[in-house]
Specification:
By secondary structure, this protein is an all-alpha fold. It has 5 helices and no strands. The radius of gyration is 11 Å and the shape is globular.
Length: 65
Amino acid sequence: MKNNVRKVRLEQSMTQEQLARKVSVTRQTIGLIEKGEYNPSLQLCVSIAKTLNQTLDQLFWEVEQ
């Protein structure tokens, strides 16, 4: 699943470890989500979006341009 988690996280100067702690998962889970190798639950997507002050659309949905 393509997503913008890494881009937004870096824009906010947050490490994978910091984000992982805030959403109660491991750093490895965040890394896999960012690579598109792990499909997070909707609950985890919402938690990540809230933590990064983004909408689900901004982080996880592809918009064709």
